[in-house]
Amino acid sequence: MPSEENQTVLIVGAGPVGLVAANLLVDGGIPVTIVESCEDVPRDLRASTFHPPTLDMLERFGVVPSMIEQGLICPTWQFRDRTEGVVATFELARLSPDTNHPYRLQCEQWRLGELLFARLKASPLATFRLSTTATAARQTANGVELDVKSKDGGVETLTASFLVGADGIGSVVRAAVGAAFDGITIPELFLTLSTTYDFREAMPDIANISYLSDPKEWYVLIRTKRVWRALFPVDAALDDKDVTSPERAERLLQGAVPRSERYEVTHRTAYRVHERVASTYVNGRILIAGDAAHVNNPLGGMGLNGGVHDAFNLAEKLTAVIKGAPLETLERYSRQRRKIALDVVQQTTLRNRAILNTREPEARRAYYDDLRRIAGDPEKHREYVMRTSMIQSLRDSEKIA
Ligand SMILES: Cc1cc2nc3c(=O)[nH]c(=O)nc-3n(C[C@H](O)[C@H](O)[C@H](O)COP(=O)(O)OP(=O)(O)OC[C@H]3O[C@@H](n4cnc5c(N)ncnc54)[C@H](O)[C@@H]3O)c2cc1C
Fold it and tell me: Which residue from 12, 137, 138, 180 could staple onto 279, CB 3.0 to 4.6 Å apart?
């Protein structure tokens, strides 16, 4: 067991997953040191969907009212055909008996980051090492060592009882765990465009979260409090400047909804998408969570949510171990969360992509028929929203020993 003097947990990464884990550990009386390359909480525009059980979990930090105030409550979401219109609408009110938040909340992930960062800053148990990059990690007889490099080039080795890698897709900590990161890279890039245009003008029946299927060019429309975010697949062979050029943005948006005016586009990002799950999330005293452990396509909003669920599972077990439970307790974290990443998150997001981009007319029709059947049957509808909102996977993971 770690000595009484050095119970500190090192966390690499102040993304949403690292900050959730840090808040939980501190609330359990455990000191944490958070190492983050950036000089502040990263504010780049990434995920924005929070599912019902994630909001239920975050309630304990007192941050949810502020997220709701800054975000947009979305009681339904839709699959649409790009030309035919609505295929099926799913209603989250059917989850009312199972959650305090029977809706998806659209709120940019950095807003949660800022709230969690502020909460940690108020704790005497939290230490931040910002503008500091982890370069390597290893286990020692009684703990862990982390090599870090500061912005001015200074290098040092930090020591602690445990190390949590919440350092995103390029995780240095995953290498120290010795985990493989097998899977696939999606052939197309995902281009996200934010626009002030209100798509409800052209599609009055559109839900705030809509997946538009098309054999040639599918896309996604997601409304936030301030803008609509449109996501299009684009050819990965194009150079970076071309992918995010204003001309391409205008062409894609005009192709989706033709207008006489130009679109006002306030933000453009393109990113590469992978489907990968680490071969283990734990090795002794070193753990990984969030994108460091699993990545998937964003169709269904499961990456960030799954990462937050990892952080809750991990922090509960790590707190127990630091307070005397056997070290092997941590391996159940890996078994539970890895199975969900493989069997639920990856399968659901891959199926969502197939519904959107399948070309063969018969296969498309079969997907549509299935979605309509589910939406039209009260029992199936509820089961489906239990699964896609991730409530079911959290319940199922409790059964994994
Ligand atoms: C460009 C982009 C756009 C995305 N858009 C969407 C989207 O539209 N919808 C969706 O559902 N999901 C999206 N995602 C995925 C989603 O944002 C992630 O699932 C989520 O951020 C995972 O959180 P995390 O805390 O695990 O990792 P991250 O948010 O990646 O945080 C990792 C943190 O670790 C820090 N870090 C990394 N390496 C080191 C190191 N060696 N030393 C110190 N610090 C380090 C980073 O600076 C960062 O702050 C996107 C991802 C990317 C990369």
Answer: 180
pLDDT per position as a tens digit, 106-155: 999 999 999 999 999 999 999 999 999 999 999 999 899 999 999 999 99
Does the Cβ of 18 fall within 6 Å of ligand 1?
A: yes
Q: What is the per-residue pLDDT for 4?
A: 46
CA of 44, closest atom in ligand 1:
1
Q: Give Cα separations from 274 to 115, 234, 240, 277, 331 (angstroms).
A: 29, 15, 18, 10, 25
Any ligand 1 atom below 6 A from CB of 303: yes
Q: Residue 223's pLDDT band (boundaries 50, 70, 90)?
A: very high
Pocket test for ligand 1, best of 133, 190, 304 (most atoms within 8 A of CB): 304
Q: Which of 301, 314, 313, 338 is nearest to 183 (CA)?
A: 338
| Structural domains for the chain | 9-75+90-182+275-397 (3.50.50.60), 186-273 (3.30.9.10)
Q: Is the pTM of this model over 0.85?
A: yes
Q: Using CA atoms, how far apart are residues 137 and 157, in angstroms rounded to an integer?
A: 9
Burial class (CB in 10 A: 0-12, 13-18, 19+), 183: middle
- Token pair of 329 as six digits: 């307790």
Residues 308-342 have pLDDT tens digits of 999 999 999 999 999 999 999 999 999 999 999 99
Give the nearest ligand 1 atom to 166 CA: 26
22-32 exposure pattern, b = at least 16 Cβ within 10 A, e = fewer = bbbbbeeebbb
SS3 241: helix
